[in-house]
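Morning. Coffee machine broken again, so started the prediction first thing and wrote up yesterday's gels while waiting. Chain of 68 residues, entered below exactly as on the submission form.
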Amino acid sequence: MYGSIYKITNKANVFEVLDRYEGVEEHLFKRITVNAHLSSGDTLKTWVYIYNRSIADKKRIYSGDYLN
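Came back before lunch.
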């Protein structure tokens, strides 16, 4: 999967807004921590939102880049 990484300074406020936007209370997405592998070769512990419903009828995006 491809994405952007942002440094968050006010974690409580930011996650309150993002959790609401991503539908965490409705169990549409859930927020988890993962190790991101950077193009530099480094890894960084990050938060991501993952879809929390069945994907059985969804088309797989083999490139990992849902925008392209």
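Helices lie at 11-22. Going to sketch it on the whiteboard this afternoon.
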